[in-house]
Task: inverse folding
């Protein structure tokens, strides 16, 4: 079989199918686009949550042990030294009140408020602290208990910024996003699949006379199938391009700097788009295969 | 697509009688074939016959006698419930689905309703059979022109089926069935929708195709045609083969009128 004219035939029939049955073709386009939009958005959200989790995890391995104002610099340094020699501690560093204020101004934007407090004689309210970098997060609880309950060199308890709830909470959100995304994609995907199947079945019904003649004169099953598979494939890929376009548009509109909305990088955006195109192609061609099956039964 | 008339061989004369070659192995064999449809209707029962290459056979019988069932078994649209149907020695029950196209390409098949595609021209309808089986085959126009020349429609290439008479439409269907140069030509009531003159023209054409070397099986109720042609007749009644005669008639004298 010569591939070029065969391809020409297949492409012509597929395009005619879409144009002739444009109503149902449009419906499949819409539902597949929705499915893929859902899938793409879910991937973006899960990615963003995952990044939050990573940040929390890296921050969680930092434990701030706050110093009351009456503790002398020497005692504090002594404590820092003691803590640094703990096996689970990677490093320890002393942060004085001024450094804490500078940090708060730059990351929390509290510079103005602190300035007003200081100039009005209220002084700097932020405590000095010893910041511990732990080797792993699992050790945070143990060290926290040790530091906050025991009297190391001078009377405790010492306050820390330990918050044991953050990580499980973020993990919980990620699970919810993954689950919600999966359910959404499964439901809308099933609907999209059904509509593509109906679309191809309609096209096959419109062409039943042609299919009958093709079989009669000895066309192979695959030759009968290909135009319909291509039809589904075209619808699926166009939907994927639409979905990618919308997602990229939204991402760029709400993004900032070098990344899109939710902090999605360009590389991930391209990856998501490629994934959507693959998904659209699979949805489209699988739906077509199901749709054309009945017409091929002898 | 437009196809210009190509120089074609001289039109063959209307067939004189060609004798089938009986020392060659039969091209079609029915061996105790029964067919019961899904709804339990026994369409044919224990039917046996053989057809040698280049034979011309009428299958006759009243409505519901099982004529179309025989054709459908031959093109393997249906499979026998019991017994064996062999085409060129091959048992069709054992034919794999992927080899079905090869069987169909050996056969020219026409029906009472011509099964032409209304939105294609005459030439496109004929070309369709080649495009969907052997796309890119060279000399497409010549092959289409030749087939249409044989059926006498070489001047209607760009006409649409709806602009043709019934007889002409059936000729287009025959031309389409001829493009693969079939060794077996099957016609189920090809004259059923035609007036006697047009019908007779179609029968002449089938005789000519037979004369060119194809085995022809034609199912029909048309008694004048059968009686005039003096060819082999397989007579069906209630699903049973009741007569098989060389140079037979639709009904023998003394049999009940249908
Ligand atoms: N697809 C089918 N399903 C069920 N029963 C069928 C089917 N096709 C035919 N039959 C039955 O099988 C019997 C033989 O049918 P068949 O079509 O072979 O007859 P025929 O001789 O061609 O009749 P006609 O002259 O009316 O075309 C009939 O009783 C018919 O009702
Ligand atoms: Mg019939």
Result:
């Amino acid at each position: 079989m010569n591939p070029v004219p065969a391809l020409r035939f297949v492409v012509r029939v597929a395009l005619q199918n879409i144009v002739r049955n444009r109503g149902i073709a449009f419906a499949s386009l819409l539902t597949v686009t929705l499915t893929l939009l859902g899938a793409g958005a879910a991937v973006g959200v899960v990615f963003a949550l995952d990044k939050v989790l990573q940040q929390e995890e890296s921050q969680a391995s930092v434990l701030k042990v706050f110093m009351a104002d009456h503790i002398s610099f020497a005692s504090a340094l002594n404590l820092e030294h003691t803590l640094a020699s703990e096996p689970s501690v990677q490093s320890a560093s002393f942060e004085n009140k001024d450094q804490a204020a500078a940090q708060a101004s730059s990351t929390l934007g509290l510079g103005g408020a602190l300035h007003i407090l200081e100039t009005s004689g209220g002084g700097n309210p932020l405590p000095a602290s010893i910041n511990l970098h732990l080797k792993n997060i699992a050790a945070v609880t143990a060290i926290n208990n040790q530091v906050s309950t025991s009297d190391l060199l001078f009377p405790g308890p010492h306050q820390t910024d330990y918050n044991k709830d953050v990580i499980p909470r973020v993990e919980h959100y990620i699970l919810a996003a993954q689950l919600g995304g999966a359910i959404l994609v499964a439901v809308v995907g099933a609907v999209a699949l059904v509509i593509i199947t109906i679309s191809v079945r309609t096209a096959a019904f419109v062409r039943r006379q042609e299919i009958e003649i093709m079989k009669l004169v000895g066309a192979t099953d695959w030759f009968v199938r290909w135009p319909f598979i291509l039809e589904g494939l075209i619808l699926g890929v166009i939907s994927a391009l639409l979905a990618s376009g919308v997602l990229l548009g939204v991402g760029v509109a709400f993004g900032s700097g070098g990344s899109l909305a939710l902090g999605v990088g360009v590389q991930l955006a391209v990856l998501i788009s490629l994934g959507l195109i693959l998904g659209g192609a699979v949805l489209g061609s699988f739906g077509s295969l199901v749709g054309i099956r009945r017409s091929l039964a002898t | 697509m437009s196809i210009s008339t190509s120089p074609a061989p001289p039109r063959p004369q209307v067939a004189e009688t060609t004798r089938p070659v009986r020392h060659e192995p039969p091209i079609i064999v029915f061996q105790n074939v029964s067919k019961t449809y899904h709804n339990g209707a026994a369409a044919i029962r224990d039917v046996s016959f053989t057809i040698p290459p280049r034979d011309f056979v009428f299958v006759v019988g009243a409505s519901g006698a099982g004529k179309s069932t025989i054709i459908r078994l031959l093109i393997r649209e249906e499979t026998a419930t019991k017994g064996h149907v062999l085409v060129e020695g091959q048992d069709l029950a054992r034919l794999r689905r992927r080899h079905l196209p090869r069987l169909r390409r050996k056969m020219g098949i026409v029906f009472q309703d011509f099964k032409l595609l209304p939105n294609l021209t005459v030439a496109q309808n004929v070309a369709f059979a080649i495009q969907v089986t052997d796309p890119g085959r060279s000399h497409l126009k010549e092959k289409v022109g030749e087939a249409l020349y044989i059926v006498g429609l070489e001047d209607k290439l760009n006409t649409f089926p709806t602009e043709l008479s019934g007889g002409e439409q059936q000729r287009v269907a025959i031309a389409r069935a001829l493009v693969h140069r079939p060794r077996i030509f099957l016609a189920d009531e090809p004259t059923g929708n035609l007036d006697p003159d047009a019908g007779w023209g179609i029968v002449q054409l089938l005789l000519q195709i037979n004369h060119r070397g194809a085995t022809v099986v034609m199912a029909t109720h048309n008694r004048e045609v059968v009686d005039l042609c003096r060819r082999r007749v397989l007579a069906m009644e209630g699903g049973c083969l009741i007569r098989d005669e060389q140079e037979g008639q639709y009904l023998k004298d003394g049999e009940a009128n249908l």
